[in-house]
């Protein structure tokens, strides 16, 4: 997956925004909450995963627990460019849905999610 493909997949989601944090990390957010993040070079990708996806991705070695965020079920894909576009786009959609579901209903409605 390329930088442009990731950006397009993330920004197509309702209420998605891009924030630069911690220097040049590109953090995709919904309602001010991150759902995925990458370094400035778009070399790797971290995202919020469901409990089942977290276990499956880590146990199979496809991803590692994300530094500082593993306790919140975030995983890291170390080589974004070698990943399948459709599969990563699906993980990004799932991450967005998990984070958006925890936003207040009024905020979800304002963002066009509910």
Q: In summary, what is this structure?
A:
By secondary structure, this protein is an alpha+beta fold.
Attribute tags:
114 residues, alpha+beta, Aspartate Aminotransferase, domain 1, six-stranded antiparallel sheet, 4 helices
User: How many strands, what sense, and barrel or not for the largest sheet?
Assistant: 6 strands, antiparallel
Number of helices: 4
Class from helix and strand fractions: alpha+beta
Element-level helix/strand string: HEEEEHEEHH
Distance between the termini: 29 Å
Walk me through this protein's architecture.
This protein is an alpha+beta fold and 114 residues long. It has one domain (3-107): Aspartate Aminotransferase, domain 1, CATH 3.90.1150.30. The chain contains 4 helices and 6 strands; from the N terminus they run H-E-E-E-E-H-E-E-H-H. Strands 1-2-3-4-6-5 form a 6-stranded antiparallel beta sheet. A hairpin with a 2-residue loop joins strand 2 and strand 3. The radius of gyration is 13 Å and the shape is globular. The model has no long low-confidence stretch (mean pLDDT 95).
